[in-house]
Amino acid sequence: MSDEMVQLLTPEGRRIDHDRFHCEASVDDLRTWLRDMVLARRFDTEATALQRHGELGLWPPVLGQEAAQVASARALGDLDVVFPTYREHAALITLGLPWTQVLALFRGSDSGAWEGLERFKNYQIIIGAQTLHATGYAMGLQLDGLVGNTESPNAAAIAYHGDGASSQGDVNEAYVFAASYNAPVVFFCQNNQWAISEPIALQSRIPLYQRAHGFGFPGIRVDGNDVLAVHAVTRWALDRAHRGDGPTFIEAFTYRMGAHTTSDDPTKYRADEETRSWAGRDPIARLTAHLRQEGAIDDAWLAALDEESRQFGVEIRAAIPTLQDLTFDELFDNVHAENTVALETQRREYADWVAQEEA
Question: What is the pTM of this model?
């Protein structure tokens, strides 16, 4: 492992020290994080199968990136808000939010009226747009006096994005605004090595985390398959934001084990040898090995978790028939807090058109 990458747990599950970062998680915490990752992987596996059966229109797998999402989500404070991409399934499940909302989105039965939006914003399909939203929200936190307090809780925003998104104009504009206004935002880049079919080597001549220095804020690379290291680094970045020290860029160095989406075929552009080499760094196997070495889990514990995961799969499949399609008329209710005159005009025009068609 390169000296420039923070790592606290080797692929074999052995704890190692770092001179700057430490994870003080208890054994109970680590067992919880392992459970989070296993259930997130089950959710991802079931959703992929549901898409193949025609129950979902599309699915973006998170296979291999569970540690980056679970550990960063577990580092969030009570007032911190998540601005996700379209792949943060593990983070959503870790935070205890309704996973049926994600299924409804990719089934086409959802208009974005999600529960828990005060903590976890809607999935963003437009690449990188959520970084602007997160930066603007973070600037609002400053105006609301929720940053830099010594005797009351502080808040920050965390914007997840991928390695490919870091080349988007919107994302770079977000970096500029965040730096200029010292906004309390953490840019959490999951570098899964591939922007669809374009490898990271073609995307950047330097490691992604080094780009942050050009914008005027710290950047750091962490082993994205190491839950301990990701948690420690994310906690550090959020603490900076809470104190009023401004933005941070985290590059979680991980790997997309599956396809970009279920409409993608990675065998057309990715070598099998590469995928096999990353399989040996699997985040679930890594934490499992560590907890076994510590005597914190055994076969019986893992069997119980496997059964819980299997039952979760049953729940996921059973949820599909319960998802209700919204009518087109209902979609007008979720555009603005208060509908505009123009939107109400469009609603009436639509209603008139439907009446004519049914006549």
Answer: 0.94
Residue in 85, 91, 131, 81 with CA at minimum distance from that of residue 105: 85
Same domain membership, residue 262 and residue 220: yes
Q: Are residues 284 and 343 in the same domain?
A: no
Residue 4 lies in a domain: no
Number of domains in the chain: 2
Q: How far apart are CA 237 and CA 187, in angstroms?
A: 9
Residues 10 and 93: their CA atoms lie apart, in Å, by 25
Which residues are known catalytic residues? 256, 260, 269
What tokens appear for 175 in the block? 């970096």
- Residue 226 is assigned to a structural domain of this protein: yes
Per-residue pLDDT of the chain (359 residues; tens, 9 = 90+): 445 899 999 999 999 999 999 999 999 999 999 999 999 999 999 999 999 999 999 999 999 999 999 999 999 999 999 999 999 999 999 999 999 999 999 999 987 889 999 999 999 999 999 999 999 999 999 999 999 999 889 999 999 999 999 999 999 999 999 999 999 999 999 999 999 999 998 889 999 999 999 999 999 999 999 999 999 999 999 999 999 999 999 999 999 999 999 999 999 999 999 999 999 999 999 999 999 999 999 999 999 999 999 999 999 999 999 999 888 878 888 788 888 999 999 999 998 998 898 87
Q: Are residues 318 and 344 in the same domain?
A: no
Q: 343 with 264, same domain?
A: no
Domain membership of residue 286 as a residue range: 9-324
State how far the alpha carbon of 135 is from the alpha carbons of 95, 112, 209, 270, 315, in Å. 21, 21, 18, 34, 36
What are the helix (H) ranges across the chain?
27-52, 66-74, 89-94, 100-107, 129-143, 169-180, 200-203, 211-215, 227-243, 272-279, 283-293, 299-319, 328-331, 341-358
Q: What is the DSSP string of 138-189?
A: HHHHHHTT-SS-SSS----EEEEEETGGGGSHHHHHHHHHHHHTT--EEEEE
